[in-house]
C-alpha cells in the first residue's frame, strides 16, 4: 500500500525531500507544512497551513489523515521536541528526540560530548559574560571563531581574522537573543570544509555522499555567513579512504557517545568538517538534520527509494537497507534576494522557471509563494537550482546554463560554486 507522508518545513531542503519522496511509486501523497510556492505545484504534493512549531495541530493532522511517516526538515522543531510529541502519540517520525537534537541546539553540549568521546575538533572555551569573552579574545588574539551557543539559522558564526573583527562579532551576537546567552570562542582551523551526512538508527550508520557547501555570501568565500549559497556532491576533497576514516573516528564514536548518555539517536547525523593539509578531518559543528543546500545535491543522486531509508531508520532496521548512488556529480546554485543575508526584498515576480526546467534543472523553492499564476519572492534564499553532470565541470556548466534563464529584480547568486575543488585541480 502506497504511503502518506508529512514533511515539516518550508525551505529548499523540504522541497527536495518532498520531491524525492513523491517521485517514488511507493508514496501516494506528500503534505508539506507549511511548504512554499514550489511544493504547492509538485506532483502528489500539497501544502498544509500549519506552522512547524504547532505540534498539537501537526499531531492532530497526522492522526486524522493516518500519516504513515512524518519527516522533519528544520532544526527548530527538533530542538523543541517534535519527535517526542509524535512518539508519545504512537506516530512514526524521522528525526532525533529533543535530547539528541542538543547536538545542534547547543554547541557547548556538543563540545563536551566530543571531548568525552575523543572526537577531533577545535579547542574552545565558553562564556556567559560578554566582557569575559572579550577579555579572552584580546588575550588569545586572532584568527579566532566566534559562535552563538544556540540555534541562529546558520548565521551565528563569525570567522574573525583580526581582534577587532572578533570583538565586533561578539558585540553583534546580541541580535540572536537567547541563542547567544552563552558564547563559544573557538580555535581557528585552517583547511577545506566539507559536509558528511549519515543516516543512523542509533546502531547502524549509512554514510551519504560527501558534499561541499558555500556559506559565505561573496565569491571566493568572502563576506557574511549565509544559510548556504550553493553546494556540490560528491566532493573530491573527501575520497573513499578519508570517508572511511570520518566514519570510524567521528560518526561511530558520536553515536556510541550518544548511546552512553542514554540517547537513542535516529535520524540524520550531519558532520561539518575541516580537512587540514595532511588530510585529517576535524569537526567544525554537528547538525541533527539534513543540510540546506546539501540535501539538494545529495538526494538527486540517491537511487535507493528515500522512504525505504527513512522508515528503516525509524524502525531500527537500517542494516537491511544499503544505499545505492548514481555515478554523476550534482551541483546546486542558490539565487538570493537583494540584500540577503541582511534586510532583503520580497514580492518580486520570478520569470524563466520553465526555461530553466527545460535545460534539465531541478528547481527547489526556498523563499517563494504563489499569487494566482505568478511566483513571487518571499525569502532571503529564493531558489536552489540543481543539475547533474558526468563530473563537476559538467554539472557546473549545466546548472549555470539553467540559472541564466531565471530572473527577478535584485537576484543574486555566486558564480564560483565549486571553486575550491577547481583551484586544487580536483
Automatic annotation (TrEMBL):
Q: Give the main EC class.
A: ligase
Enumerate the cofactors the protein uses. Answer: Mn(2+); Mg(2+)
Give the record's GO biological process terms. Answer: 'de novo' IMP biosynthetic process; purine nucleobase biosynthetic process
Under PROSITE patterns, the record lists: ATP_GRASP, GARS
Provide the catalytic activity annotation. Answer: 5-phospho-beta-D-ribosylamine + glycine + ATP = N(1)-(5-phospho-beta-D-ribosyl)glycinamide + ADP + phosphate + H(+)
What is the species listed in this Swiss-Prot or TrEMBL entry?
Answer: Gloeobacter kilaueensis (strain ATCC BAA-2537 / CCAP 1431/1 / ULC 316 / JS1)
UniProt pathway annotation: Purine metabolism; IMP biosynthesis via de novo pathway; N(1)-(5-phospho-D-ribosyl)glycinamide from 5-phospho-alpha-D-ribose 1-diphosphate: step 2/2
- Identification of the protein by name: Phosphoribosylamine--glycine ligase
Query: Known InterPro entries for this protein?
Result: ATP-grasp, ATP_grasp_subdomain_1, PreATP-grasp_dom_sf, PRibGlycinamid_synth_ATP-grasp, PRibGlycinamide_synth, PRibGlycinamide_synth_C-dom, PRibGlycinamide_synth_C_sf, PRibGlycinamide_synth_CS
Q: Which UniProt keywords apply?
A: ATP-binding, Ligase, Manganese, Metal-binding, Nucleotide-binding, Purine biosynthesis
Amino acid at each position: 500500500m502506497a504511503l502518506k507522508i508529512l514533511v515539516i518545513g518550508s525551505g529548499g531542503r523540504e522541497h527536495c525531500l518532498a520531491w524525492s519522496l513523491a517521485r517514488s511509486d511507493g508514496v501516494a501523497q506528500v503534505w508539506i507544512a507549511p511548504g512554499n510556492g514550489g511544493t504547492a505545484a509538485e506532483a502528489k504534493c500539497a501544502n498544509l497551513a500549519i506552522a512547524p512549531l504547532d505540534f498539537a495541530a501537526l499531531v492532530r493532522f497526522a492522526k486524522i489523515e493516518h500519516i504513515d511517516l512524518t519527516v522533519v526538515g528544520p532544526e527548530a522543531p527538533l530542538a523543541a521536541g517534535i519527535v517526542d510529541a509524535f512518539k508519545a502519540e504512537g506516530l512514526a517520525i524521522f528525526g532525533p528526540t529533543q535530547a539528541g537534537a542538543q547536538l545542534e541546539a547547543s554547541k557547548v553540549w556538543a563540545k563536551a560530548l566530543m571531548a568525552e568521546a575523543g572526537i577531533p575538533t577545535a579547542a574552545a572555551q565558553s562564556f556567559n559574560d560578554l566582557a569575559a569573552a572579550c577579555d579572552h579574545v584580546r588575550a588569545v588574539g586572532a584568527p579566532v571563531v566566534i559562535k552563538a551557543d544556540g540555534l541562529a539559522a546558520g548565521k551565528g558564526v563569525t570567522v574573525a581574522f583580526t581582534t577587532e573583527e572578533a570583538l565586533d562579532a561578539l558585540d553583534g551576537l546580541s541580535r540572536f537573543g537567547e541563542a547567544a546567552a552563552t558564547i563559544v570562542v573557538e580555535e581557528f582551523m585552517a583547511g577545506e570544509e566539507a559536509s558528511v551526512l549519515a543516516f543512523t538508527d542509533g546502531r547502524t550508520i549509512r554514510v551519504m555522499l560527501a558534499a561541499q557547501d558555500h556559506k559565505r555570501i561573496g565569491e571566493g568565500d568572502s563576506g557574511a555567513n549565509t544559510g548556504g549559497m550553493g553546494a556540490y556532491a560528491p566532493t573530491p576533497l573527501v575520497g573513499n579512504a578519508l570517508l572511511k576514516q570520518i566514519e570510524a573516528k567521528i560518526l561511530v564514536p558520536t553515536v556510541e557517545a550518544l548511546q552512553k548518555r542514554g540517547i537513542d539517536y535516529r535520524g540524520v547525523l550531519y558532520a561539518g568538517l575541516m580537512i587540514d593539509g595532511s588530510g585529517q578531518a576535524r569537526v567544525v559543528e554537528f547538525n541533527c538534520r539534513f543540510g540546506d543546500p546539501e540535501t539538494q545535491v545529495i538526494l538527486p543522486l540517491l537511487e535507493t527509494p528515500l522512504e525505504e531509508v527513512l522508515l528503516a531508520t525509524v524502525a531500527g532496521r537500517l542494516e537491511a537497507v544499503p544505499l545505492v548512488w548514481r555515478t554523476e556529480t550534482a551541483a546546486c546554485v542558490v539565487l538570493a534576494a537583494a540584500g540577503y543575508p541582511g534586510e532583503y526584498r520580497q514580492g518580486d515576480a520570478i520569470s524563466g522557471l520553465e526555461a530553466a526546467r527545460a535545460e534539465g534543472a531541478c528547481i527547489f523553492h526556498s523563499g517563494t509563494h504563489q499569487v494566482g499564476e505568478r511566483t513571487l519572492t518571499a525569502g532571503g534564499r529564493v531558489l536552489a537550482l540543481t543539475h547533474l553532470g558526468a563530473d563537476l565541470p559538467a554539472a557546473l556548466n549545466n546548472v549555470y546554463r539553467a540559472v541564466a534563464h531565471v530572473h527577478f529584480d535584485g537576484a543574486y547568486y555566486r558564480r564560483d560554486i565549486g571553486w575550491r575543488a577547481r583551484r586544487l585541480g580536483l
